[in-house]
Amino acid sequence: MVLKTNSKGDVCHASYNEGEGRITLAKMVILHEYSLSIVEHKGFREFTSTIQPLFKCPSRNSLKSDILKVYAEERCKVLNLLEGNDCRVAVTTDMWTSTNQKRGFMAITAHFIEKSWVLHNQILRFIYVHCPHTSEALTEVLIEALME
User: Fold this and answer.
1) Coil, strand, or helix at residue 134?
2) Residues 16 and 60 in one domain
3) Which branch of life, at top level (predicted)?
4) pLDDT band per the 50, 70, 90 thresholds, residue 74
5) 84 alpha carbon, distance to own chain's centre
C-alpha cells in the first residue's frame, strides 16, 4: 500500500502509475540536460528503487523513446497554439558557431500574443547548420524548417 498526504496534511492512499513515472523521468532529463546513461548509473537505480520499489528503471533506449514522446506532445501543443492564434506571428532566428568544433547552429523562435494578451515565445526548431553559412544556405535551412 502506498500512502501520501493531501493538501490538508491528511494521510490517504496513492496509486502508482509507471507510465507517469517514466514521462516525469524523461522531463527531468530534458530539463536538466542529463545524459541518457543516467538510468544505467548504480546510484540512480538504488535511489529510484528506494523511493519507489515498483518503478522499473527504463533502459537508455527506452528513455530516448520517452523523450521523443514528450517532444511530440510539446510540438503538438505549440502547433495547436499557433493554429488557434488569430494574431500575427513574428519569427526570429539566432545563429551561432561553436568555438571548439566550428559547428553552426540555428534557433528559430515564434513570438505572438494570444487572445488573453499573453506574450508567447516558442522555440520552433534548433538545427545544426552545415557549412558554408552563406545567406543563401541559411535561407534554405530556415524555409525548410518552417515548411515542416
Assistant:
1) coil
2) yes
3) Eukaryota
4) very high
5) 22
Q: Whole-model pTM above 0.85?
A: no
**Which segments of 1-148 are extended strands (E)?**
3-5, 11-13, 90-97, 104-113, 119-129
Domain of residue 127: give its range. 85-148
Q: Do residues 64 and 35 touch, judged by C-beta distance below 8 A?
A: no
Residue 146: name the closest of 128, 125, 132 by CA.
125
What is the three-class DSSP state of 30? helix
CA distance 91 to 109: 6
Least confident of 40-44, 56-60, 93-97, 107-111: 93-97
pLDDT digits (tens, 9 = 90+) for 16-39: 899 999 999 999 999 999 999 999
The total domain count for the chain is: 2
DSSP assignment letter at 4:
E
C-alpha of 22 from chain center: 14
